[in-house]
Amino acid sequence: MMTTASITAARRDNSPALRLPGAGRRIWRRVWVAFTIALLLVVELYPMFWLFMSSFKTTTEFTQSSSWALPEQFTLDNYVRAWTEGQIGANLLNSVIVTVPSLAAVLLIGVGAAFAVEVMVWKGRNITLLLFVSGIMIPGQMILVPLFIAYFKLNLTDTYWPMIITYIALGLPLTVFMMAAYFRAVPREVFEAATIDGAGMIRSFFVIGIPLVKNALFTIGLVQFLAIWNDLLVSLTFTTDADLRTIQAGLLNFSGQYGVVDYGPLFAGISINVFTLLILFLLLNRQIMQGLASGALKG
Amino acid sequence: MKNVLGDKRAILILLGPALLFYTLVKIVPVLWSFGLSFTQGDLRGFEFVGFDNFVTLINDPNTPTVLWFTFKYAILATVCQVTVGYFLALFYVFVLRKSSTLIRTLVFFPVVLPTVAVGLMFRRFFEVAPQNGPVNDILNLFGIDAVDWFAQPGTAFAVIIIMDLWRSIGFYAVLLYAGLLDVPEELLESARLDGATGLKLVRHIVVPLSLPVLLSSVIFSLNATLKVFDSVLALTNGGPGWDTSPLTLYMYKTTFTYQDYGYGSTLALTLTIICFLLTIVVFKFSRKDNTKATA
User: Fold this and answer.
1) What does DSSP assign to residue B92?
2) Given A234, A281, B124, B278, which residue has the most CB atoms within 10 angstroms?
3) Contact B106 A41 (CB under 8 A)
4) Are A57 and A264 spatial neighbours (Cβ–Cβ below 8 Å)?
């Protein structure tokens, strides 16, 4: 009986659904699907909604009404205080100053190295690729102490350089590895044809290589952006000067200093940090999801 | 033709900067850090002390606490992330089917958020003093007393795992979803004709076919959870005591709060060795499984 039912079901509908036999269960099925979706969305989205609502509350509201009450009015006071007193504005600027050059450098030299290792032919290219890839596994803690000493001896402490240099090095393994994988998918004939035309390899790299992988480059760029922007370990270690703090290190410090008494600005600060990224995600969610997933599968 | 593809000057220009950076800022520091684990000192200078730091590591009363937390967290978080992620992926593929795009995207939201922000947010969400957070307010609503989640190791650990799941589940669901889409339609069809339905179909057909992507997820998750740092620092700061401190955080505080650079390097080395060994074990294990499957 069960067999015939599922056969007819399969014939009627070629979709890959896992159907419960019998039509009476269809309504029941709708109910549990709707329930699962609702539960999932409430659990995943409510904390962010709560955070956003809390960022408008006054101190009295925090102490006197329950935590899920909505704010009585939407004023930007907390945001103004977080931005100025809480240094969130300055921290955000620091994050931009550090992230932009790190990201540009890691992409440029990373894709160059991937091209040299994957497209060009020479002895030792496989070993070189392996050397880069092995870096993915090594935890950041393993290089912190020597770098801390080195930056101190080079008098780079209290500048942006320690962060920028470290981010470039930390981003290289995944960038080289993923870009090499993308170059591998390009037929060699494309580059060989270019060399017949008399183009040098550097020219081929810029004129043919980069345009061929520019979508992939954009994807890995997003992955690296998130890694650098959201990093705490490096920025916490190398910013001894409070004026250089990135948004993550700044927020952590903010929470320690004012968070116990001043909830409003803290929630506003967290909101600024969270919603900056959510806006980015709204614009580019497809590429971000694809990039993060392929980075994980290959790495 | 081969000559141009093997142009030494071009290779040097393209590879040189990356290799230089990587060597100076990654390889050299790794070796240097290895050397430092046999020394003691600070920015003014280091002194060779042989295996003293390793003796300290063995006798350190915090070592068992920190290692236990590191492993307990990595294993439990990995199991939760991959299992729940897999169920969610199955839900996307087999229940929601074509209409899953929006849900997939919404559930993915928290993945891109800075872990520091997430940690601070969950700290308030589970708070008891000075005011109850939503979680304790809900407990009160049901007549249950508010819980001071961060006062005991057990509940603090639970909050870390909950936060971790909240933050990463959308990611693992998408990762495994991509794997499930690769399961050939004809195979499912023929299994269905043979009378396999529902969970049976999943257990005997879908799971074996998605083993490779499951394994990749496990490796990725272990690698990430062993190195957990930001979220725990922002959520519990390793407390109470050292009870929720992963090795990464213990290393960080030993080095930069207590200025013990030598012992800090030894802890970093320990962490690296653990990551390395675990990778080998997982690979060995997966290879054995593969041969079994083909035999």
Assistant:
1) I
2) A234
3) yes
4) yes
Tell me the pLDDT tens digit for each residue of B127-164: 887 778 889 888 888 888 888 899 899 999 999 999 99
Q: Angle at CA B262, nearest 5°, toward B256 and B263?
A: 80
d(CA B176, CA B166): 17
**Residue A259 structure tokens:** 């968070």
Under 8 Å between Cβ of A112 and A172: no
- Count of all residues that appear for chain A in the document: 299
CATH class of segment(s) A80-298:
mainly alpha
Interface test with chain B among A143, A164, A282, by most B beta carbons within 10 Å: A143
* pTM for this entry: 0.87
Distances (CA, A) of B234 to A248, B166, B228: 10, 15, 11
CA gap B157, B69 in Å, rounded: 9
The CA-CA-CA angle for residues A222, A225, A229, to 5°, reads 145
Q: What is the pLDDT of residues A62-83, one digit of tens each?
A: 777 777 778 888 888 889 888 8
The amino acid at residue B85 is G
Q: Please list the residue range(s) of chain B that carry CATH number 1.10.3720.10.
A: 37-294
Contacts of B80 in chain A (CB under 8 A): none
Q: Which helix H or strand E contains B56, and what residues bound it?
A: helix B52-59
Secondary structure (H, E, C), chain A: CHHHHHHHHHHHCCCCCCCCCCCCHHHHHHHHHHHHHHHHHHHHHHHHHHHHHHCCCCHHHHHHCCCCCCCCCCCCHHHHHHHHCCCHHHHHHHHHHHHHHHHHHHHHHHHHHHHHHHCCCCCCHHHHHHHHHHCCCCCCHHHHHHHHHHHHHCCCCCCCHHHHHHHHHHHHHHHHHHHHHHHHCCCHHHHHHHHHCCCCHHHHHHHHHHHHCHHHHHHHHHHHHHHHHCCCHHHHHHCCCHHHCCHHHHHHHHHHHHCCCCHHHHHHHHHHHHHHHHHHHHHHHHHHHHHHHHHHHHC
Sequence spans of domains, chain A: 80-298
Which CATH fold would you assign to the domain B37-294? MetI-like fold (1.10.3720)
Contacts of B88 in chain A (CB under 8 A): 40
Question: Where does the pLDDT of residue B245 fall: very low under 50, low under 70, confident under 90, or very high at 90 and above?
Answer: very high
Residue with tokens 């620092």: B233
- The verdict on a CB contact (< 8 Å) between A50 and B130 is no
Give this complex's ipTM. 0.88
Hey, of A141, A161, A292, which one would you mutate to test binding to chain B, going by the most B CBs within 10 A of its CB?
Answer: A141
Chain A touched by B141 (CB under 8 Å):
no
Decide if B232 contacts B253 (C-beta within 8 A): no
Q: Please, which residues bridge with residue B191 across strands?
A: none
- Secondary structure tally for chain B: helices H, strands E: 16, 2
In degrees and rounded to multiples of 5, residue B131 shows phi and psi of: -125, 155
- Convert the pLDDT of each residue in B45-91 to its tens digit: 788 888 888 988 888 899 999 999 999 999 999 999 999 999 999 99
CB B74 within 8 A of CB B282: no
The pLDDT assigned to B31 comes to 94
Region A127-154: mean pLDDT is 90
Partners of B45 in beta bridges = B42
> What single DSSP character describes residue B94?
I
